[in-house]
Amino acid sequence: MADTTKIINCPACGKEMTKIFMSKEGVNIDICLNGCGGILFDNRELKKFDEYSENIDELKQAIQDKTFEQTDENKVRICPVCNTSMVKNSVSAKGDIIIDECYNCGAKFFDHGELIKMREEYPTEKDRRQALLSQTYNEIGSKIDDLELKNNMNLAKRSKFLKAMDKLFYKDVS
Ligand SMILES: [Zn+2]
Ligand SMILES: [Zn+2]
User: Fold this and answer.
1) What is the model's pTM?
2) What does the pLDDT look like over 151-165, one tens digit per residue?
3) By the 8 A CB rule, do 91 and 132 touch?
4) For 77-128, what is each residue's pLDDT tens digit?
5) How far is the CA of 109 from the centre of ligand 2 (A)?
6) Do the domain assignments include residue 58?
7) Which domain holds residue 152?
């Protein structure tokens, strides 16, 4: 896992990111204050953040009344923590909030405003996970259908896989 005290450069605009200390969560979060306003979480940070989802005041304060550079959200971004290409993923059931995720180290990058938009769409973490879960099942379901045609995956294997997904997504839900 990343050393959270290391200065990192924004994966969207390349500017040096600023660490904001979130007192409730006890974590430093990297924000691109002098560039595009994007926010980067490492895996551990986002998890802590989720546990106290009601307080994002420090974050709001840091970014309020600022204007940020526009970036090309369609461009593939490179994880500033581990140098792996990040993957674009929807974190909203409506599909209008796309974040960049690093499948290697678990870092997640939110463009300016995406996090706040996401939290407005789903007031609680549980709501968001539920929405995400049903969406993920739909996506994975159709991927499995494709796989089945190619590999003749049987039903037993399929339900085993879905059970594993359950564990993955439900383990943190209170
Ligand atoms: Zn930036
Ligand atoms: Zn990474």
Assistant:
1) 0.64
2) 554 555 555 555 555
3) yes
4) 999 999 999 999 877 666 777 889 999 998 889 898 787 676 677 666 677 6
5) 10
6) yes
7) 126-170
38 and 95 both lie in a single domain: yes
Distance 12 CA to ligand 1 centre (A): 5
Same domain, 73 and 159: no
Residue partners of 18: CB distance under 8 A and separation at least 6: 30, 31, 32, 33, 34, 62
Domain count across the chain: 2
- Taking a C-beta distance cutoff of 8 angstroms, is the pair 38, 109 a contact? yes
Judge whether 28 lies within some domain: yes
Say which amino acid occupies 141.
G
Using the mean position of ligand 2's atoms as its centre, give its distance from the Cα of residue 84 in Å. Answer: 6
- Ligand 2 centre and the CA of 1: distance in Å? 9
CA–centroid distance, residue 112 to ligand 2 (Å): 19
